[in-house]
Design goal:
By secondary structure, this protein is α/β, with parallel strands linked by helices. 36% of the residues are buried. Strand 4 and strand 5 form a beta hairpin. 36% of the residues lie in helices and 19% in strands. The chain has helices at residues 23-35, 47-51, 73-81, 95-101, 114-125; strands spanning 15-19, 39-44, 60-63, 66-67, 70-71, 86-88, 106-107. It has one domain: Rossmann fold. The protein is globular and about 30 Å long.
């Protein structure tokens, strides 16, 4: 699961980094992102694998908090430092905590709401596209 996606057609809106350790959720999220016109880096189920991709030009990142080898915050810190908009998609966070730690980030609670994810992508990724 930890790989760069190579879809049949290039994304015209840019690449979104996806960190998710649940395979079914990861597949659903990947399809939602691609249907919105973005390419996908991932899905990554491990912090260590995602950290290897933070240098990729990204328009946004969708991050589950708990991954197989720890919490996603080292990835979020590096992406935030690089100015990549963050969307947290998790059942394991408190929205106010994320908002204070990562100003401007979005929070989309689980279970998946494709309209909410799509809206968050449009809000944070399009200014960079």
């Amino acid at each position: 699961m930890d790989k760069m996606s190579s879809g049949a057609e290039p994304a015209n809106r840019g690449i979104v980094l996806l960190c998710e350790d649940e395979p079914i959720v990861a597949l659903d999220m990947k399809l939602i992102i691609e249907d919105a016109g973005y390419g996908v880096a991932g899905p990554f189920s491990r912090v260590s694998a995602a950290l290897e991709q933070v240098g990729t030009p990204l328009v946004a990142a969708i991050l589950d908090v708990r991954l197989r080898d720890g919490e996603v915050f080292p990835v979020a810190e590096e992406l935030a430092r690089r100015g990549v908009p963050l969307i947290f998609h998790s059942a394991h966070i408190i929205e106010d905590d994320i908002a204070s730690r990562y100003p401007g980030s979005r929070y989309c609670p689980k279970p998946i709401d494709d309209k909410m994810i799509g809206a968050a992508l449009r809000e944070c990724a399009l200014p960079n596209a």
